[in-house]
Design a protein that fits this description.
about 120 residues; alpha+beta; five-stranded mixed β-sheet
Length: about 120
């Protein structure tokens, strides 16, 4: 069974974008991925950390690229990737909620367990 999670990109304590991830939502999966995403942005010199909507879009592109590379032995086209989406609110079946507090010099990521964790 998948471990579903959402990522709330916030600015000034307000949700500006919510991304749904269908699987590997545990901190050892998604938590590490979010830190790696921020590291990758720093590596290319992209420091627009205080723009929540911009970071959310960049995250979707970054995650889609990773999924298209790791989903099969042969690289799949990015548009064939499923398991990530944009939502208006948390689905009822998520296990983790990540809050990305978007500000400079680097966003802070907090994780909350939601419901019963198996």
């Amino acid at each position: 069974m998948s471990t579903r999670a959402t990522i709330h990109f916030q600015q000034n304590g307000e949700d500006r974008a919510i991304i749904y991830r269908h699987s590997d939502g545990y901190p050892a999966g998604l938590g590490v991925d979010l830190e790696t995403f921020l590291d990758d942005l720093a590596y290319i010199g992209d420091n627009r950390y205080d723009d929540a909507e911009y970071l959310a879009v960049k995250y979707v592109v970054w995650q889609t690229h990773l999924y298209s590379l790791s989903s099969a032995v042969i690289e799949r086209p990015p548009l064939s990737v499923i398991g990530i989406g944009i939502v208006m609110q948390d689905p009822e079946d998520i296990k983790f909620r990540y809050i990305v507090d978007c500000h400079r010099p680097r966003p802070i990521i907090n994780v909350q367990a939601v419901g019963h964790i198996v």
